[in-house]
Amino acid sequence: MAQVMNKQTELFRFSGDVNKPDFLHWICHRANRLGLNGWVREDVSAKSIEVLASGPEELLDAMELGCSLGPITVWVEDVERYPHKTDSPVPNGFNILNPVD
Amino acid sequence: MTTSDVARNDWYPVAIDNLLTNGQSEVVVLMQEELTISRGNDGVIKVTAQDGRPCPVAINYGHVWSSIGQPDHALFDIPEAHEDGRRMVDCGPVRVKASPLRVVENFLDIAHFPFVHTDILGAEPHTEVEPYKVEIRDTVDEVWATRVRFFQPQAAKSAEEGQMTDYMYRVPAPCTSILYKTCPPRPGSWDVIALFVRPISEDLCDAYAWMALYDETSKQSDLVQFQQMIFLQDRSILENQIPRLLPLDPKMEVPTRADTTSIAYRRWLKRKGMTYGAQLVAR
Q: How many domains in chain A?
């Protein structure tokens, strides 16, 4: 029987010189490649990028590591990562949400 | 791609000190520029570029170092090189058809040991890399990985049986990596193995291994052969990596926790603006 990997949901905040439009699409591409569910959005006032991602821990690790390097146009200075508790499951797919101020 | 100033103005190994005799000269290529390294009859070494301009010279760790630019910093220090009782071993250059940055990154990767250096530096089923600490130390502008532990069937020439081996990795310059590992005959001390890489072009380089060991029994030739065997096993992997340049955009890759040092190295290169041998945009 195939081993079932435990899924979890976490919130990531990437800060630094990160507010570049291509970073959002880059993150979306990465999440889809990893098969993660969730969303990404720009937090304009905090000058950071928020990512909610749901999937196996190992793939969330891969998401964090890849995004900490990111495309050549951005510089990620800091990464914060928190468990995210929610009553409703994260919908399938990964989307870019409207920015928050 | 133009050679970045960061790359131009750094130190690189261009010759092995004790193989260059008085009155002798040799020509090497550093970042597509020919350099002539000559030792006069007075023993003084000079490095001259093809257009006749003199290049800076430093002699340390058994090697002659030079630059096609003007480094504004001294060659990095390896304090262990000055400790009494260590044997210094120059292993000589190995040519690799790969980016110099790929070669350094490979040296930092422990997860490949059981699969590439089977029954020497690693063996199945001991394939798991335990969590370890990686940091870019801003005070010294270096990458360090510490608290690295891995099972090795034969950790060194002087080792007789398998053991858990402790490691530290240090990257003091973009084309240099230094490995500290458990010293089997002298618990509490570290053996030091360094890889100094000279970029010939963005995807071709010479890699010089150098060691500072506590080992009073092994023959010098055996120590060199052991290290060369390990590196030649790596070479076949390195020369088949795609893309040939080191991606600074990991869009097409899926790094895992075991790649934390690699990601820190790439972040550090990106921050420094070291782009020679790097692929900037994923294809």
A: 1
